[in-house]
Amino acid sequence: MAAIANPSTIAVESNLNASNYGRDPFSSSDPEVESFTTPLTSDITDYKVENGRRYHAYKKGSYYYPNDQQEIERLDIMHKMIEVSLGGKLHRAPIGKGSQRILDIGTGTGSWAIEIVKVIRVNSSIEASIQILGNDLSPIQPHWVPPNVRFEVDDAEADWTYSQKFDYIHCRCMGNAIYNWPRLVQQCFEFTKPGCWTEFVDLDFEYTSPDGSLTPKHAIKIFNSEFLRASRAANVEPCPGPRLEGWAKEAGFIDLHHEKIVLPIGTWPADKHLKKVGAWNKLQISSGLEAFTYALFTRKLGYSVKEVEVVCSKIRAELQDPAIHSMIHL
Fold it and tell me: Mean pLDDT by 10-residue block, N- to C-terminus, for the chain (330 residues)?
């Protein structure tokens, strides 16, 4: 992918105002965007319901985001957002014909695991031997999947007991899901075949702006600060992205490649690619505010549900303001 411009030099779209900001061609009204909010079939089990949201049953309470239909839809929006940010690609590592055994950690809805089958360019005789395993605390993946894709309920932080190593391990967007990142990265190293690849893709969830338009007084920034505080009070890391390279080096990985990618929040950039990424990011954040806050803020910060709802309402209002040029990084 071509290098992303330095955040301080991102040009802002000049023809935006509050009346047209929500109707941008790449906003949630776009048919392509709407198609990714279509509900997916999931395997329903006996989950805990708290504040109107459904949470995982396996390793109950260890993960603070819900697993209900609304969250399933958000996860697929996020999947699309990351794909767009990577220039339409699902991976950066040079995987190919030799990658016959693949692990997708924290597979979520399973979209990446299902779609990567189509991406790997192999001949038909080898394709049949590809095995893709996705694990997650919640069995929310679709019932009908390609025959060489399998999902299992598992905790990625438990001791790995796989009988064979993997040609490629994929670990994406596990911020706020992992309690011991160095150990997870170490297990990835130990279960990656020599000469093969592990790829980590994760966020720096610290909200910034390239021009100072996002200030500490904005509801978005206040939420972000409280979110980071609640996450760390729960002993999970909300911003693993900047630390992944160091953890990988400590685990023993070599030939490291590190990228930092801008994810605007909203369609304020003038650049068409960043504008499209921002539309998807704004959509997934807006649809996920309650998912991010209900459990964390009520359990760890003592917020009432009403207080959380007020926070979310203020954030949604500011997300419609084209004068606020906020962003995070991948």
Answer: 43 64 43 34 66 92 95 97 96 78 96 88 52 93 90 94 95 96 98 95 96 96 96 96 97 95 96 97 97 97 96 96 96
CA atoms within 13 A on the CB side of 126: 11
Count of alpha carbons within 13 angstroms of residue 276, beta-carbon side: 14
d(CA 33, CA 166): 34
Q: What is the pTM of this model?
A: 0.85
- The answer to whether 281 and 74 are in contact (CB under 8 A) is no
Question: Residue 193: is it exposed, middle or buried by C-beta count within 10 angstroms (0-12/13-18/19+)?
Answer: middle
Supply 46's token pair. 């006996």
In angstroms, how far is the first alpha carbon of the chain from the final one? 14
Beta bridge partners of 133: 103, 150
